[in-house]
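Progress note, sequence design subtask.
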């Protein structure tokens, strides 16, 4: 089997929504952990039942990388 040393891969895009409004978004590599900060987030409680929708998608990455590469 032929495996290219570098390939265009996929990126993970995370979008946090409150209703129709995007409150945070970020993109990272699918093989690495990343942190997404949501400014002004309100915790859910019975008195304040605030919920956020989180959308996660795999999207084409413009950054070539090797799947075996460690950063």
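Output:
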């Amino acid at each position: 089997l032929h495996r290219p040393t570098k390939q265009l891969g996929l990126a993970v895009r995370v979008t946090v929504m409150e209703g129709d409004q995007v409150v945070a978004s970020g993109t990272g590599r699918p093989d690495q952990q990343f942190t997404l900060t949501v400014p002004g987030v309100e915790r859910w409680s019975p008195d304040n039942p605030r919920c956020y929708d989180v959308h996660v998608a795999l999207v084409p990455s413009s950054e070539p990388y090797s799947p075996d590469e460690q950063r």
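The chain is about 0% helix and 45% strand. Work on this subtask will continue into the next period as scheduled.
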